[in-house]
User: Which sequence fits this backbone?
């Protein structure tokens, strides 16, 4: 093999969404050698698609808001499966992180007195989401990107990491990647590695996620010895587009409901009033009148049921459609046209207006949208230490969607963007600390490097074999049908059997053409991660025999208090990567200290 | 339903040719859907960029029937019925493969922009009024599809100009920073002398292709030209136009809050 391009850094960050950029900025600020590696062009990561806002209890609209209320909302939204310490740090630090973005050039919408304006979102007691119309993610990523560029961070774009490398002690010491434009390999040696690779949603048929969300970070972390938790907890966002078919799954921001939009069935009825769970009854409006008063003044009525946490709303829509009260294309109606003026709608929701007009030929200022659940976010992820984002593998840190624990079994809207900047920063600090403490440059094990490269190139060596697109397609159909929003034992068990078959077939995928910018090959190298994380989700879905947040079992429709005390933790003990066995064990959740517990007890009085 | 016939440019830096693909038409499909179906069936190695499929990331720029468009936002049923659709890579950038071009010119330009430089954050955060942020927000809608760069005649067929021309995408970036209520850097000399603003002759082609409907020429280039080209500009006229603030404020002045 000819000489492989190699770079040594103190810290490499894999992923250039909000979490990766924030981590890189932090480490670079310490004067270290930092590289940022991403599969797409810089600025195109998933984060760019976030719409509604970033949650932070700044109290600019409701002075009553503070971190404790945000903490409580987050834990309740996650059905108490969250790591309490992550939820605490997140609630305490997100206001500073949002303000910091402003110092880096972000331009958020303003209140009358010139502060950052905050909007309502599901599950948040007060208007809490800082936003820029409905393109908040764009503002966040551009701000961080421009900051990173001004700090002269080295960026490796369109460079896909296939494996992490480890030393004899099991610590991570670098990564193997290939340049998509040329197909040439590149290796990195690093004292610390931060994973910020985002989500897994591309394994479902109807999804709001892009081609990048193949769970690479989850998989390479586990292959290197890290543990994954809560992988069964997948969020189906209640409102994705359902028609035309080609755009099915594309997100319709929750901001539509936060700004007054309501859900109706084919009878025109606001059905969400029928689906208020006991846990939320005390704080949810009983009548349309009461709900409507709330939009203008949160003390004049309780919140509309359309703004319950996402899992609740998604399941309700599912039930309405099943009961035959759906819209013509199998969704329900989201109506803002009859509730706000056309000017208001275009001003507050410009990209939604644009999206429906161009893609569906629907004018949302005049007609209702048709919407239904779409795979959106994974709460589960790499298990980390809350304060440092450290994983079980020395030298490896994880932040953003790839990390687990922060959101429990269900994430509140707006809590992801804030998660990215809070824990991205913390991961950057910890990674820098470790790099500074290490005297020697890491040295890669060449045998390992060669093995990983051969593995990635294997699809070219097979003369005949399956088309990677066919396999991806089958995987998506399978996960949609068997491990979707509502699950049962028989279906997930069947899914696991089929996933095993797919894994075997994946070892027989063949691709043609050259290595330079070859999407077929690129997909073939994504399949191992997609199949690994899908297996984790299906295993968790099988073992968590209850319904909680992003895990809904029709055969166990209630939450089980005992299962509420455990995380399902997954590992690959052999450390042999893709083909080896994944184990799953229930392990106790960390215990919340009394002073935080008191926040919940006060309330139940 | 009838078929869609698409001529897609295939090749690399050494040259290439059009390949014809015929796929059955489906309701509501966009050009990117058809490209994806071609990939999944006939040509798994057909290269194209995309991410969001909703007009939000600016990855999927290409030239459709000769015009720069986002493939994910161009519905087949808006193109002339029954006619062959041609899809080619952006012309202003070097080709990597098929529909994918090397857009690194733009990332190099981004590196040249002197950073935003605000005064220290006051207790309780910065205060800015909505009207003041809206001017900059228009430009921050930019999804970096680089189609304005592609269409701009100064660089479209003039590789030699790239060294001294930042292009419309970066003119709006400079305008945004100039209009930022908190910024204290002065980039006027740079924009005039090194970014080639003078080469733009206001043809407005950039504004026409912008998928975010940013008024690149009217709201950014023209004000910027007036501001940087005319050194003795008249501050009162500026105030009257309400486009850019009167003068660059010092850090101290910028820290003063609006009421
Ligand atoms: C349509 C939509 C709207 C949303 N709206 C909101 C909202 O309003 N508020 C909110 O809080 N959240 C929202 N979310 C969720 C939020 O956007 C995501 O959870 C978040 O952006 C994830 O950020 P991240 O930094 O973890 O990863 P991402 O932004 O997903 O970035 C992942 C990065 O990792 C890179 N990468 C992945 N694999 C590899 C590899 N193998 N090698 C190299 N690089 C790799 C990618 O190239 C990319 O740069 C929304 C999500 C979607 C899809
Ligand atoms: S207006 Fe200027 S920047 Fe825009 S396309 Fe014409 S010459 Fe280029
Ligand atoms: S200004 Fe418009 S056309 Fe130019 S890169 Fe930005 S979004 Fe694209
Ligand atoms: S894929 Fe994002 S703009 Fe087309």
Assistant:
């Amino acid at each position: 093999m000819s000489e492989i391009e190699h770079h040594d850094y103190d810290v490499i960050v894999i992923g250039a969404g909000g979490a990766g950029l924030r981590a890189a900025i932090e480490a670079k600020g310490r004067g270290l050698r930092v590289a940022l590696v991403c599969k797409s062009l810089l600025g195109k990561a998933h984060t760019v698609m976030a719409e509604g806002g970033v949650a932070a209890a700044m109290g600019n609209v409701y002075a009553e808001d503070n971190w404790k209320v945000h903490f409580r909302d987050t834990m309740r939204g996650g059905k108490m499966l969250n790591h309490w310490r992550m939820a605490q740090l997140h609630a305490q630090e997100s206001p500073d992180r949002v303000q910091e973005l402003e110092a880096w050039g972000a331009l958020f919408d303003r209140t009358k007195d010139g502060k950052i304006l905050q909007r309502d979102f599901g599950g948040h007691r007060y208007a809490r989401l800082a936003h820029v119309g409905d393109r908040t993610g764009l503002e966040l990523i551009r701000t961080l990107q421009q900051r990173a560029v001004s700090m002269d961070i080295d960026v490796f774009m369109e460079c896909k990491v296939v494996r992490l490398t480890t030393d004899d002690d099991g610590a991570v010491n670098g990564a193997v990647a290939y340049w998509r434009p040329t197909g040439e390999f590149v290796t990195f040696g690093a004292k610390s590695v931060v994973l910020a690779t985002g989500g897994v949603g591309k394994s479902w048929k109807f999804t709001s996620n892009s081609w990048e969300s193949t769970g690479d970070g989850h998989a390479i972390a586990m292959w290197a010895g890290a543990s994954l938790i809560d992988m069964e907890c997948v969020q189906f966002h209640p409102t994705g587009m359902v028609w035309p078919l080609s755009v099915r799954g594309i997100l319709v921001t929750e901001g539509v409901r936060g700004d007054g939009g309501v859900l109706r069935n084919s009878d025109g009825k606001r059905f969400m009033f029928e689906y208020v769970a006991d846990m939320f009854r005390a704080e949810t409006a009983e009548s349309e009148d009461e709900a409507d008063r709330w939009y203008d003044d949160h003390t004049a009525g309780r919140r509309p049921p359309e703004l319950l946490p996402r899992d609740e709303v998604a399941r309700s829509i599912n039930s309405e459609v099943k009961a035959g009260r759906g819209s013509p294309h199998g969704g329900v109606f989201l109506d803002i046209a009859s509730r706000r003026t056309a000017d208001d709608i275009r001003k507050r929701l410009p990209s939604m207006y644009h999206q429906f007009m161009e893609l569906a030929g629907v004018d949302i200022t005049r007609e209702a949208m048709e919407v239904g659940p779409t795979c959106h976010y994974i709460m589960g992820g790499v298990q980390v230490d809350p304060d440092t984002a450290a994983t079980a593998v020395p030298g490896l840190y994880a932040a953003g969607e790839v990390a687990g624990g922060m959101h429990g079994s269900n994430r509140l809207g707006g809590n992801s963007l804030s998660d990215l900047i809070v824990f991205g920063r913390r991961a950057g600090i910890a990674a820098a600390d470790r790099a500074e403490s290490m005297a020697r440059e890491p040295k890669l094990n060449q045998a390992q490097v060669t093995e990983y490269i051969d593995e990635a190139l294997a699809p070219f060596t097979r003369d005949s074999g399956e088309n990677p697109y066919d396999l991806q397609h089958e995987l998506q159909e399978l996960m949609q049908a068997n491990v979707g929003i509502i699950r049962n034992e028989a279906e997930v068990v069947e899914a696991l059997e089929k996933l095993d078959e797919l894994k075997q077939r994946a070892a027989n995928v063949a691709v043609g053409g050259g290595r330079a910018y070859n999407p077929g090959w690129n997909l073939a190298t994504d399949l191992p991660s997609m199949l690994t994380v899908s297996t984790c989700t299906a295993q968790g879905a099988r073992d968590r025999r209850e319904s909680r947040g992003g895990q809904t079992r029709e055969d166990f429709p209630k939450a089980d208090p005992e299962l509420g005390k455990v995380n399902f933790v997954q590992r690959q003990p052999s450390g042999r990567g893709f083909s080896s066995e994944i184990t799953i064990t229930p392990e106790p959740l960390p215990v919340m200290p009394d002073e935080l517990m008191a926040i919940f007890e006060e309330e139940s009085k | 339903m009838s078929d869609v016939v698409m001529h897609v440019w295939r090749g690399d830096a050494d040259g290439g040719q059009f390949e014809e693909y015929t796929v059955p038409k489906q309701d509501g499909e966009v050009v990117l859907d058809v490209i994806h179906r071609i990939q999944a069936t006939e040509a798994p190695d057909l290269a194209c960029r995309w991410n969001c499929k909703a007009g939000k990331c600016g990855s999927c720029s290409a030239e459709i029937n000769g015009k720069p468009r986002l493939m994910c936002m161009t519905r087949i049923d808006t193109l002339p019925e029954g006619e062959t659709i041609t899809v080619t890579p952006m012309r202003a950038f070097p080709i990597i493969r098929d529909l994918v071009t090397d857009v690194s010119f733009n990332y190099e330009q981004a590196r040249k922009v002197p950073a935003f430089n605000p005064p220290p954050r006051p207790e309780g955060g910065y205060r800015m009024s909505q009207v003041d942020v809206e001017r900059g927000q228009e430009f921050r809608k930019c999804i970096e599809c680089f189609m304005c760069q592609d269409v701009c005649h100064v660089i479209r067929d003039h590789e030699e100009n790239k060294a001294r021309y930042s292009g419309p995408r970066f003119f709006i970036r400079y305008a945004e920073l100039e209009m930022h209520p908190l910024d204290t850097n002065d980039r006027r000399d740079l924009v005039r002398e090194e970014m080639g603003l003078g080469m733009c002759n206001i043809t407005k082609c950039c504004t026409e292709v912008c998928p975010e409907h940013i008024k690149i020429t009217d709201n950014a280039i023209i004000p910027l030209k007036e501001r940087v080209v005319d050194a003795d500009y008249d501050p009162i006229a500026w105030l009257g136009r309400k486009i850019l603030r009167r003068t660059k404020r010092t850090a101290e002045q910028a820290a003063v809050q609006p009421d």
User: Anything to note?
Assistant: The two ends of chain A are 70 Å apart (CA to CA). The domain at 237-374 of chain A is CATH 3.90.700.10 (Flavocytochrome C3; Chain A, domain 1).
